[in-house]
Amino acid sequence: MVNQKYVLLNESLKALSDGSINLLIEKGAAGFSKSYSTIKFLEDKKIDYGFIQSYATPLKFYELLYKYKDKKVIVFDDVQSINNPLIVGMLKNCCWSVIHKKRQVAYYTTSESFAKLKIPEIFDFKANIILIFNNDLREFAPVINRGVKIDLNFSFDEKIEIFKDIQKEAEIDQEVLDYIIKFCDPATKNLSIRTMVILSKLKRNGYDFKMFAREILPFSEEQRAIVEGMKRKKWIETFGRSQATYYRSKARLS
Question: Domains in the chain, please, with CATH?
Answer without folding.
Answer: 4-151 (3.40.50.300), 156-253 (no CATH)
